[in-house]
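ok so I'm stuck.
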Amino acid sequence: MSSYCTPGIRIQNNIDDPEPQTQETANISNALPSDVSVLTYTQSPSGSGGQKHIKITEAIVYFICKDNQPFSVVDDIGFKKLMKEVAPLYKVPTRNTIKARDPTELCSAALGIFELSKSHSANYISHELLNILNLWDIPKSKILAVVTDNNSTMIKAIKENFGENKHLRCFAHSINLVAEGSMKKVDGLLDLISKVRNIVKFIKISVNCSDELRKLQEKDGDNIKKLILDVVTRWNSVYFMCKRFLELKEVVNQIVLKHINAPPICINDNLSTMLPTSRIGVEFKNAITDEMKKRFEFIEKNYLLSVSTILDPRFKNIHFKDALTLSKHLKFINNSINSISSTVENDHLSTDSSDSTSEYGTIDLWGHHKNLAQKSLKTFVDKTNQGNQRHLGPEITMYLSTPVSPLKTDPLITWEELKPMYPLIHKLATKYLSGVSTSVPS
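replied:
not stuck anymore, here's the structure
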């Protein structure tokens, strides 16, 4: 290229050059063989800035991602020589600069969709899962967690191939099982829900009744709503069916009373006046308590969930009840960060302990957490766990001693802000917070 290109002279096929073509440059360009491509690069003396500089940097990032190259390739002597020849004034970015272009955010990808043609045994499912890993050259050691529902076959398949410690049972499915198990234990509750379901079916399959439902709502000036029928595979659908039934109970009552063949509607009063002091209410509360104990009594012993919770700035250790188990998990975190050797980049630290008001009206599912968070804000350390923190290093001790973050913050973004203060915990947190808590969003 040097034999055809004189320094300072611009060639016409440099599309990034806004300056007009001169006769001199046109003559040089026309003298070049048709198969010769000329690259010129105009840049500031500092070797950075400008649209061309950005494009080259983006091309390097693309090269690293597309060809599965390590970030360190930009430090290789051969790569630097290549870039020196191609763009002499271009300043090759460091590996940390390239890393910084990758935002800290969770991403998801489907690695495969395949048909299960045999009986869904644990061995067969294990075989197919391992095939997917082999296809993508993913070692089992790289798997942080495998999230499935509570199906016994899935539990066995994951336990035998990945280990019990790496298996997470879907939280949404577990909570659904709590609801289903509780309803089965209360005498008369399933029958009550069945009567609601029959009324909903009756109105939905009748064109006349559906029209009446719409007209009565229009007459009252309400927003038009339809009744909802539950579906066995949709975990929240029983709740939505009953909730909508209560919202429309007045107009539903008018419709059902007009039709002789309609299901009985005496359950309206039971649903609308159901209080914790009623038999069903008391039994249901006791049943839910039993089911919650069955599903979540030993949840603190699960190291994946516990470590992730501690490393989440919104929760840390303020919810733990078992001091001995907490101490065990804190030791694990402490040992893990002691084994991490890396350099960290400095960012600006931003702290914000304010929290927004509840969006849940009079029923605040996060009320208990907010009380604990308020105590954490006032004391800056949980006194009940202080004894368990004496053996910990300075990073984890300082981290646990500061107030929790607001509920609505993104923990991964928060950790980018906390990175300069806790560089070692940052590496551990971004690993464990990448796991998801449910196999199917509820």
